Amino acid sequence: AFISYRQVCNSKFAERLYERLELIFLSGKQPLHVFLDRMGLEAGRRFDRDFCTALSHSSVALPLISAQALEKMKGLGQQDEVDYVLLEWILMLALVESGRLARIYPLVLGDGWANDREEATKCEDWFKALSQFVENELPDVVSCKTYNELDDFLVKELKLPKAKRHTVQQVVNTLLRSNGLDCINTRRDNFGVFQSYAESVRKVVEGVAGAAASNVPTLHGHGRTATMVSEPTGSPRDWLVSNGLERFADMLINDGYDTFEELALLEEADLVKLGIKEGGYQKRILRVTARLKAM
Hints:
With about 300 residues, the protein is an alpha/beta fold.
């Protein structure tokens, strides 16, 4: 698993996640191999080539997405430069497209996980605020310098074609629409919280390994990885969370979709009434709940 993060704002979260993941063992008592640049890069070597190589050898990528991590990308609309976090995220999409990367599992961080905060702050509309930031603040332009740097690695090292061009805004939106994990409203010093995050990652990695062992093809769509939907067990809320819909779970449950039978009846018009109007999120929710109709 490869952890991608912005050092200046989310290094503390990345390090604590890394510490928990290092203690994880997969089925068969195999250790979970994790790459974190601070731990895995050697002095005196080209760091950009080394982290690109590490990512290309990973089966699961873990981009840490936060408003603070995206802040630097705002300037790419006025003055283009190589943004190495953006480069990692574009490389993830290119590797998924080529079949070299099995899964992108984003961890979306609330504002409270910034390095300078003592604890995560509560914000009911935090994801809405983040989405608005992406739409209103991130440039809808292609970072040519970032792509040129990446293409050099793709073509020379991996013998792959140049990456498909996407704007900064498109890259971030693609990751946000992927099934991932929301990390919000929790005290920083809670060991159990990071343990639960690590356990979620373990399940993803084991799912990828199990699919590979069974020759089950990874499903792709619109530049992101689509995951298999789990069987409806436990409570409806827990099932929604297990399928990457944590940010929508309480909204659905509180609006009366608190049984599997009710969730199975969800349609696009219902989501619009709930304020979920973005097409990518609608498709994501309906793809999961469609599993209930087949039961």
